[in-house]
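Narrative summary of target 7.
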Amino acid sequence: MVKANKRAFKQPGFTFGEGQIFESHQTTENVYRAMIGVNASNSDVDLTTLKQRVSSRVENLFDAGLKQIDVYKATRGGAQFFKMIAEEFEAEAPLEPEEIEEIFSVYSAARERYRGSVSNTPLIALVDRFREAVNAVRSAGPSTSVELIYRPSAADKAQMELLDAFDNLQISKDASHPSSSSSAEAPWPPTYFNLHEKIWLCDSRIRWQLYGKGQMQPSDASDIPTLPDRYSHPVDVKLYLAWLALTNYSPTLSDWGLYMSPIGFLDAEDRKDWYLATGGASKRYSTIVEFITYAKGLFNTRAVVAGFFTFWTAGDPESFEKLYASKGANKRRDLF
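Modeled conformation, tokenized:
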């Protein structure tokens, strides 16, 4: 069935070369598992079904990329974009940002090589749109700087309207509270956040709940997202952290930075091991290595960097520090 799996990735309107589709055998196996599932080698699964699974997954991947195309432009197709897509892409198994980038690259190149004529498909349309955006970034030149500004999509606007309608039912509502309808007057996210912080705020699952918010004092409990507890989904934790940063950070007075992603794993392998057990939610957590790296860089402009550790990492810090130190990494406790 390995041959059948390879053929399943060859979709109409794309020309792939001979040999492996992806650069390494390991990447090929990882992508198969993520796109087709753990039962990909089951003889009961016919080639037509495999092709449909792949087409649907790759469509979802390119759709996720197009929905965050402003992040692609702001990072010039950098690693931060592919890390974001790795978090937002729903798959049967985890994929590293480098593997996500390779899928984009392989299908874009295969589409460019195609010289035949075939009826347009949803996958072809998505890949062509993404290629147009990539070519626009490349033609702009390396010196071109693009500010990351979130522009609500039709789907996001619909969710905002539902949120506003719910707010209107509340007993207490502050008339001065910023709403999504008035937020278009100024760029959002606020320009004083760095690019990494803006990317966190543009997470597709939370941005429509935060759009237009800035420094503010909540008028009542309805203005504040639910306080996270040990049962909270990482997306809900991220929403709370992002809200804290938006409403409390002052560009002129604050010398602190808040890591707006919950920290739940030692490293990427630890996070990957928990993917299936958490229903894919583990990809929404950051690792200690990622937090340390970010904090060390931010100390150039901020005096304090705070991170939110899950209860299973913060509950027994001494043993967790020993585990962390055993990996040969930075042991500084003042970072967290």
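The longest strand covers residues 256-258.
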